Amino acid sequence: MRLTAYTDYSLRVLMYLGLKNDALATIGEISEAYGISSNHLMKIIHNLAKLGYIKTIRGRGGGMKLAGEPQEINLGQFVRQVEPDFAIVECFEPRRRHECVITPACRLQVVLGKAVQSFLDVLDQYTLADLLQDATRLKSLLHIERARLDADGAAIGPGVPPALGRR
Hints:
- It contains 7 helices and 4 strands.
- A two-stranded antiparallel ribbon has the order 1-2.
- 44% of the residues lie in helices and 7% in strands.
- Helix 2 packs across helix 3 and helix 4 packs across helix 5.
- By secondary structure, it is mostly helical.
- Strand 1 and strand 2 form a beta hairpin.
- It has a domain of 104 residues: Arc Repressor Mutant, subunit A (Orthogonal Bundle), CATH 1.10.10.10.
């Protein structure tokens, strides 16, 4: 089974926002972190906001954040909402159901249907919080907790030695 890039990127956006805790993130920031087109992310962000997974704040200093807690976002439910369909073979598509000559005697649809259901059953056992368990390493890989600068240009924040920010 393979998820679409759209679903993959949607999950990555949620992970990024989950790692930011309650801090706002921008499309540009997420685009840079993952190397994903900003235009593609705009469509994803719009859909995630429409579905109620994220909140967006417009204007200067705006951005987005999770609308709820990571442990409240069930992966199975999320994938069912975001993935366009689970037609992994043509006989799963109602409009093409009769194109395959063996359809009347084929058991493939039953077997693959059970496989898709098992896939979703496994996702139902996990939440976004489960994907964020190695938060420190994920934040490092995504460059989420870069040093912030104070008014004098000095680095501030957890784990930043005072001398690093001085110019």
